[in-house]
Amino acid sequence: MAENQKESLALSIRAQEEKIKQLRTNNAETTDIDAEIASLKGLKQQLDALTGGKKKKAGKNAFTLKTAKGTKDHNDKEMAIREKVFSTITKVFKKHGAVTIDTPVFELKEILAGKYGEDSKLIYDLADQGGEECSLRYDLTVPFARFLAMNGKEYQNFKRYHIAKVYRRDQPAMTKGRMREFYQCDFDIAGTYDSMIADSEILKILTEALDNLEVGQYTIKINHRKILDGIFEVCGVPEEKIRPISSAVDKLDKLSWEDVKKEMTEEKGLPSDVADKIGEYVKLKGSRDLLEKLKADETLTKNASASKGLEDMTTLFDYLDIFDITHKMSLDMSLARGLDYYTGIIYEAVTEKSAPPAMAEGKKPKTKANSDELDESTVGVGSIAAGGRYDNLVGMFSGVNKKGQPNLQIPCVGVSIGVERVFSILMSKQKAEDIKSNETEVYVVSVGDGLLKERMEIANELWKNDIKASFMFKNKPKLDKQWNACEKDHIPLAVIIGRDELDKGEIRIKDMRSKDEGQGGGVTIQRNNMVQEIKDRLALM
Amino acid sequence: MAENQKESLALSIRAQEEKIKQLRTNNAETTDIDAEIASLKGLKQQLDALTGGKKKKAGKNAFTLKTAKGTKDHNDKEMAIREKVFSTITKVFKKHGAVTIDTPVFELKEILAGKYGEDSKLIYDLADQGGEECSLRYDLTVPFARFLAMNGKEYQNFKRYHIAKVYRRDQPAMTKGRMREFYQCDFDIAGTYDSMIADSEILKILTEALDNLEVGQYTIKINHRKILDGIFEVCGVPEEKIRPISSAVDKLDKLSWEDVKKEMTEEKGLPSDVADKIGEYVKLKGSRDLLEKLKADETLTKNASASKGLEDMTTLFDYLDIFDITHKMSLDMSLARGLDYYTGIIYEAVTEKSAPPAMAEGKKPKTKANSDELDESTVGVGSIAAGGRYDNLVGMFSGVNKKGQPNLQIPCVGVSIGVERVFSILMSKQKAEDIKSNETEVYVVSVGDGLLKERMEIANELWKNDIKASFMFKNKPKLDKQWNACEKDHIPLAVIIGRDELDKGEIRIKDMRSKDEGQGGGVTIQRNNMVQEIKDRLALM
């Protein structure tokens, strides 16, 4: 039969080559020809697999066997940790009334265009194969805003979470260890509400998620765009320089004040005394005490923007007190956040473990090479979650009415948890071989004869009773191989059967974690009591 | 401040336009210029949003507000059904010892090339932005085989499931209602085992999944590629025509025998008497009785391929009897399955509800327009799951050694459940507004005064005790709006607070599903007993 297949394939290959030749002669469309060539390649690969490629390719792969650059497979052990992280976070989100939605992995190119400033060049585009121009999503926030603009009339009060992959074609030189495909985990509250109530619940949710993930000690830095803008105004920053200066300030977690000041003055042309005034403010860190200090600063409170921001922050602190999370916050005037679209409070959670090595040693990192492989590009270096209020993004999608107002404006506040960093923290806590990636509770083992059908019968009875069971797919498996499989998969119980015992209506049950019993151990019970005995034992585990 | 922002944006736009002009003058790379243009577009959109676009675009969207063709958003109600389907299926998979892995959404183009025959033209390619050529995955099987070829030495005994999206750029004319992005749900067993043991467990898993999904009555058609190939051989089909004739037979679930015969003879040049002989075989359907009939057919049993297939099937039926699922199977000689890579048993589950309207009426569908929007392209029309054994696919990726053998050959057997079709069956069973997409258990309602801080305190106490609670984000919410929110979200319990009651240390709890109590109803209890009372009530629900 193999010879028949080979001949048949060889014939198909000749026919396909003829077809391509004709398409070329007839000036067919390139995409059509390409498809036929792909088909031809496949036939040749099949033939190679069948013949062992002996005609020309012996000892060589026909192609590169790898995943695309910047992407990786996640094996069963890694997925077990991922699923634990996702379910922990999802549980918190659902406790706070969240629902989930799903958006496509690619969007029309124009939906994403111009939302990410100069990072737009990192967007992956789909090839032009006729039809619309599309791009892979860069984050989950822009698709969410697009969803709200399309469906928002039904979703004016909406708590939604979305855990999914996003795509960034980071430049090789910039991306040592940065993944091009990675998970984001977003929670957002959309709707027009009274001041700071939703904002405070987002912070509450963030603390619950981080506590339950057991990532260690963390601090949530908070600030308010309106306070920051007010500071820049009263210090004398010209209006057109507010965004660039704000993005310089945002680097204070990575650079020294001297370097940031240099960027402000030399690169961005700010007078030195103005930079110094800013320096006095952005060095400030504290809690409600700092808030009171700022409120006592008349220069600041006379500024409309700062005054509104300080009022918001006062309300926020009242709510944080009620939710008992004020002690986890640090009001930090140097926090500015990169994205342009924030309009209210902004925040960023940092853990001890999330600082890159150079920072922990108090050194200034020269390149991004210091960051670990699972560095999360949604949040700044060293941070494990970040977010803020963005009241105008939905309006950018909704179009405007005749009065020149957005057709639909839905204020939003949200947080993105840097799950890739959480994974890497949790993975580093344990050895891969100690992670149980399956949930199997019972392994059915035969002693002596193969007893395949008997093992199948027992497994079937266990499955019927919702007990997770496996057995070896061999007619006559060796005993030690069965024990090895059981141990490798960390299966807690074994049901052991032998011909003699079965004839007496008996089986043995062995607790695999009690080493002292040895491989011959276990207790003999009536076969009829098997399910109940196993359920009782599992209930105690 | 808005005026400042506008001016600042206008300045940035002018600067950006200048930058692009310079890049063009300097003949910069197109991708760089494109990125800057994208950035410029974004700035203009921001300005439009701020000014209401009144300068030129009043009343018009700046761009098309939609998802890309063939893709759609899934809202919270749809996601609630999806999550239920996924968790039901996942539970079954885990009961049978499965683990999950994750592969990237795009692969190197050459990994996918030529695996899908002429359907290769439906593969989405990423744009050439420098670097590797990549394509979106077309299914989950080829990436799984690639994973095994890369990591297989550690995964020679492997039950894995993978639920994820795949991408097919189906031609508009062919795709009425066919999605370009849709979920697949695959379960596969990889490894070298004794005959038909893993195969029978796959069929057991499929029956458990379909039973638990409550999709209604179903039948699993089974056949064996070796029996089919044997039939073609003994009927006198020339070797090079076996695949084309097999794919004609596969259409018997959609076309009449006359039409299939026409395809065999007129299109594919088979002599009429050969086609008639095939017709006698492929019309056969049955169970073990049919198997015995075929085994009594000496013409067939003398054929090596058919003989091996019949032996496999006999073993399989023994195991299906043990697993108590033989009655759900139909041995069906017309089942051929489209994909080339199957080498052993093949199967396809059909439900009453999965037949398209035209078939249900006994008519021959002329176009695919009859299929519903969530038609699943992994499986044939009318089928809800499908799969088979593919022993050579991994070897196609592993390359060959000096002896011309694949470096690694891992036999596999698997099934793909058509979850999109399952969703559409389940969604059609209920009204969207009856679906509870959140899990909130308690809504905290205030009567009279707003009592925001008091509501927050109560919500905080409930969260601390793992009770899922929400409240309205308003300082002074109206009572009827609170009831409406509670009802719309199908929240079963309300905690009602009022100033007088709080002063007495009391609150009210109301069961929202007991209509007779009216809005003023509920029982008054001590605030101290609130958590216990709620837990007791939830335990009874």
From TrEMBL, chains A, B:
InterPro entries: aa-tRNA-synth_II, aa-tRNA-synth_II/BPL/LPL, Anticodon-bd, Anticodon-bd_dom_sf, His-tRNA-ligase, HisRS-like_core, HisRS/HisZ, HisRS_anticodon. Keywords: Aminoacyl-tRNA synthetase, ATP-binding, Coiled coil, Cytoplasm, Ligase, Nucleotide-binding, Protein biosynthesis. CDD domains: HisRS-like_core, HisRS_anticodon. It catalyses: tRNA(His) + L-histidine + ATP = L-histidyl-tRNA(His) + AMP + diphosphate + H(+). NCBIfam families: hisS (TIGR00442). Belongs to the class-II aminoacyl-tRNA synthetase family. This is Histidine--tRNA ligase, mitochondrial. It comes from Phascolomyces articulosus.
